[in-house]
Amino acid sequence: MMTIKLASKNKYAKNGISLIEILFALVILSSVFISLFQILRSGVKGTERLSEESYAANHAISLLESVSALTYSQIPQIPEGTADEDIMSWFAGIPEFSLSSLPDSDFPRTIKIKEVSKRTKDDSDSDNSQWGSLKVVSVTISWHPIYLKKHVKKSKSFHALITDDMEVSR
Prior knowledge:
By secondary structure, the protein is an alpha+beta fold. The protein has helices at residues 19-68, 87-90; strands at residues 78-83, 109-117, 134-143, 154-163.
């Protein structure tokens, strides 16, 4: 007769979780959480960047629209680099002019208004423009982004073309 010997349990076998398994699980969980926090951090930075750029664009466009609301003859020629604080002195005699947004020291704006062509009453005049009288209004805004730790300066420019609303001949 044959006897079968049953394998006995090893005296070193454990029924619980080993320290190595716990450490390995912690490493996996921590790498997952670190990845999630990096994704959230980049999302917050993107939101900050878009918020600053939107504010800057709206701040510059509000000045551009305030000037563009005037008639061609009311808009003075203003030299390049005229600061936000000096703008009101150029429009002091125009009761219709008002700034829709006040100057902001963190987002300084500069303005330039230049006449690019002029229509004269004399059609034989060589300076008479076939395109009519046109002025270009340029507003540039600059700021130091908070989301960048370096001392970086960003700027954006916006332009509008103002005409005297007379028919343009070719």
